């Protein structure tokens, strides 16, 4: 559908237009066998500065209340509204309509590689199971410290990039290896392992490297850079994975 601009009613007003969302829908099993996914189209009035999340809200609140998707903070912090928009993993709350082509239907699908529960909602448990397995917490030995563990700016910088992960699964669900092998740890788990392996205060690096030195671990990465391109926080995911591989070989971290 062609986006038709509406003349603003007053000076400085932002023009609105019609935009069509083509959404992949899926209903849960009703006992009669697993239903097939199908496509549904909705046309809503929007502004270029609106986000895809805003358009989805208009569909749900004004046209079809059964449309199901996750969202929480709506500011790119919680990571709950990751989905495929025009074939790319993005956060719906960070994707502006003006940055897409509103003259064509905007295609919205659930992220790939995880079981779909309903519409745009996927089962995140396999993703979080891999995350938990790499022990995403500080591991230390000895007595409880009597003061804070000090760390220099240089030591913090070593792993600062990977602290930005919001666990949205955009990187993992953009990985072709993960699509075909659900046992692969995936980029997000490796990124969060990196965050602790290179933390000067942590003493569990060797344990994490042993966990990732598995047939479904870090060596399954094929360096396609999909994960880096998909990350909404700009984390250099592929670089972090390569650094973990290097640490695996050299045991220097």
Automatic annotation (TrEMBL):
Pathway: Carbohydrate metabolism; tricarboxylic acid cycle. Keywords: 2Fe-2S, 3Fe-4S, 4Fe-4S, Iron, Iron-sulfur, Metal-binding, Oxidoreductase, Tricarboxylic acid cycle. Its cofactor is [3Fe-4S] cluster; [4Fe-4S] cluster; [2Fe-2S] cluster. It catalyses: a menaquinone + succinate = a menaquinol + fumarate. GO terms for molecular function: 2 iron, 2 sulfur cluster binding; 3 iron, 4 sulfur cluster binding; 4 iron, 4 sulfur cluster binding; electron transfer activity; metal ion binding; succinate dehydrogenase (quinone) activity. Binds 1 [3Fe-4S] cluster. Binds 1 [4Fe-4S] cluster. Its EC number is 1.3.5.1. Gene3D superfamilies: 3.10.20.30, Alpha-helical ferredoxin. The keyword Oxidoreductase applies. Residues 155-177 form the 4Fe-4S ferredoxin-type domain. Residues 17-114 form the 2Fe-2S ferredoxin-type domain. PROSITE patterns: 2FE2S_FER_2 (PS51085), 4FE4S_FER_1 (PS00198), 4FE4S_FER_2 (PS51379). GO terms for biological process: respiratory electron transport chain; tricarboxylic acid cycle. Pfam families: Fer2_3, Fer4_8. CDD domains: fer2. It is an enzyme of class 1 (oxidoreductase). SUPFAM superfamilies: 2Fe-2S ferredoxin-like (SSF54292), alpha-helical ferredoxin (SSF46548). Belongs to the succinate dehydrogenase/fumarate reductase iron-sulfur protein family. This is Fumarate reductase iron-sulfur subunit. The lineage of its organism: Bacteria, Bacillati, Actinomycetota, Actinomycetes, Micrococcales.
